[in-house]
TrEMBL record:
Species: Lupinus luteus (European yellow lupine)
Listed InterPro entries: AA/rel_permease1, CAT_C
Name of the featured protein: Cationic amino acid transporter C-terminal domain-containing protein
Compartment(s) of residence: Membrane
Extent of the signal sequence: none
């Protein structure tokens, strides 16, 4: 089997990374010819069972899988870079666009509480991501973590939604970029869009400016990770100065009468808004994919991730308070809320500063997203669940060029057509689903180790996790369908019992070597509960779109991804076994066995 781009093929010649031969995409044995594929397809049930039950290992992800890109990513980042990447990744269109939308239509001035709820959920997820990123510092992020703890199949379903999250998130930010650019030019956003009246209203506002922005971001992301970091740092500093200006200048025009009523849509509105505003926190997971390029992961990742999330949450809450004090929530503009708010209070000149700051912020979000999503796709392709062509790392730049260009091309297509409201809801589903799985994987990591955890403790672990997941789902479903309290009175104690039973009744199988989440299992269990709860606040159409995408992933996996990853895994196992057997031979030689004795040691080929 030929290795992917840039590798040495069977004939010894080195192939270029950006070729488009069939073997660049499907070099595995199952795809050599139709007979091979037919035999592989007939083995689908057996292969699926193998991939569902097989888990990777830390060492495999850190060494063998990483080596499939042929060239190393350059270790150029420290905690300062990561913290600014985190700030740059998160503070973008969520705060500058969705705050106005959710304050006006869902939460009113209580939108600040929506940000608090989303922020707590995001911070819990940050803790889980941080432990994994420190222990398994590879470009695969949550895909690699899930592959180690929950197996290939779950990891692939999550991986597909990770890629969807990035494509949709980038598209949403790119379209928001156009809105604020229009404000800067004293125009309506639709003045820069092409409206096709014969298409659905959700898809007929074509956005060519979004395409141009994404092309510029692609060039920078491909050129250099450190160069991207420097640009991000400069842009993020400017961005924070603008945020400080918005808060200080806005509060000078505060009117406390605008805070009454505080929660016009009641508690339900606060949580509905919180589920959508989770979009505003998306991006920190991209920072975890940079662990492979971090000089000292054990020190840099916790400081960078947790520090950036605390700064971001604090800034979000202050900005939400400021906006709702400047204008009655009914009058907030849903496209450019802060710019219009300054115009409404007689500071029309300030809207240009706000628009420029928003554009800077969105540019850094797009940049960090481009860097992160390419590294996700690179690591997924290293396992051959996606074609290995995407795993190529350029020798000169040390960046995954193929993955970067491909992901941003997909983002550009979506950004060209799709309305922001559709994008933000669908994005929140994918994100909450993945964060829930990462928290679940952390519990499995701490309480299960093959060969260490007894059968009895395995059963206890499964019972505990079923209670935690089931009660969390029940809370979410009851919230979505009822205004009563009886369901909560049953489901909340069940969640507490499940978590307490895991804490008291199941011994830990593993402790983190370098940095660990505090208060395990309570914090990961709470993360699971909050993420599932917020899922219950998202609209039905978004779940239908999510289901269609997941169905597409299953079809791709069963017909292509399963067989490619199965062949790759078995080839790796064979190579590893051969290495072990050769080592046995050499150890016998070193111990002084004669040649005839050594020749009896079997070595498979």
């Amino acid at each position: 089997m030929e290795e992917q781009n840039g590798a040495v093929n069977n004939g010894g010649a080195r192939r270029r990374g950006c070729t488009f031969q069939r073997n660049d995409f499907f070099p595995e044995e199952s795809f050599k010819n139709w007979n091979n594929y037919s035999r592989a397809f007939l083995e689908t049930p057996f292969r699926l069972k193998d991939r569902v039950l097989t888990r990777s290992s830390d060492q495999t992800e850190l060494v063998e899988v990483k080596s499939r890109s042929n060239h190393e990513m350059k270790k150029t980042l420290n905690w300062w870079d990561l913290m600014w990447f985190g700030i740059g990744a998160v503070i973008g269109s969520g705060i500058f666009v969705l705050t106005g939308l959710e304050a006006r239509e869902q939460a009113g001035p209580a939108v600040v509480l929506s940000y608090v709820v989303s922020g707590i959920s995001a911070l819990l997820s940050v803790f889980c991501y941080t432990e994994f990123a420190v222990e398994i510092p590879v470009a695969g992020g949550s895909f690699a973590y899930l592959r180690v703890e929950l197996g290939d199949f779950v990891a692939f379903i999550a991986a597909g939604n990770i890629l969807l999250e990035y494509v949709i998130g980038g598209a949403a930010v790119a379209r928001s970029w156009t809105s604020y650019f229009a404000t800067l030019c004293n125009k309506n956003p639709d003045d820069f869009r092409i409206i096709v009246h014969k298409m659905s209203s959700d898809y007929n506002h074509l956005d060519p400016i979004a395409i141009g922005v994404l092309i510029a971001i692609t060039i920078l992301a491909v050129y250099s990770t450190k160069g991207s970091s420097i640009f991000n740092y400069i842009a993020s500093v400017f961005h924070l100065i603008v945020i400080a200006f918005i808060i200080i200048a806005g509060l000078t025009k505060a009117n406390t009468d605008n805070y009454s009523p505080f929660a016009p849509f009641k508690v339900r509105g606060v949580f509905h808004a919180s589920a959508v505003l989770f979009f505003a926190y998306v991006g920190f997971d991209a920072v975890s994919t940079m662990a492979e390029e971090t000089k000292n992961p054990a020190r840099d990742i916790p400081i960078g991730l947790v520090g950036s999330m605390i700064v971001t949450t604090f800034a979000y809450c202050l900005m939400a308070v400021t906006l709702c004090l400047m204008q009655p929530y009914q009058n907030i503009d849903i496209n450019a809320p802060f710019s219009v708010a300054f115009s409404a209070v007689g500071m029309d000149w300030a809207k240009y500063i706000v628009a420029l700051g928003a554009l800077k912020g969105m540019s850094t979000v797009l940049l960090v997203s481009a860097v992160g999503q390419a590294r996700y796709l690179t690591h997924i392709a290293r396992t051959h669940m996606m074609p290995p062509w995407f795993a190529h790392v350029d020798e000169r730049t040390g960046t995954p060029i193929n993955a970067t260009i491909s992901m941003l091309a997909a983002t550009a297509v979506i950004a060209f057509f799709t309305d922001l409201g559709i994008l933000s809801n669908l994005l929140s589903i994918s994100t909450l689903f993945i964060f829930m799985l990462v928290a679940l994987a952390l519990l499995v990591r701490r309480y299960y180790a093959s060969g260490v955890t007894t059968k009895v403790n395995q059963i206890k672990l499964i019972v505990s996790l079923v209670l935690i997941l089931g009660s969390s789902a029940a809370i979410s479903a009851y919230w979505a369908t009822s205004d009563g309290w009886i369901g909560f009175a049953i489901a909340v104690p069940l969640w507490f019992i499940g978590t307490a039973f895991l804490c008291i009744g199941v011994p830990k199988a593993k402790e983190p070597k370098l940095w660990g989440v505090p208060m395990v299992p309570w914090l990961p269990s709470l993360s699971i509960a909050i993420n599932i709860f917020l899922l219950g606040s998202i609209d039905k159409k978004s779940f239908i779109r999510f289901g269609v995408w997941t169905g597409f992933l299953l079809v791709y996996y069963l017909f292509l991804g399963l067989h490619a990853s199965y062949d790759t895994a078995k080839e790796f196992d064979q190579r590893k076994n051969n290495t072990v057997e050769v080592d046995k031979v050499w150890s016998k030689v070193e111990e002084g066995f004669d040649e005839g004795e050594v020749s009896k040691v079997p070595v498979s080929t």
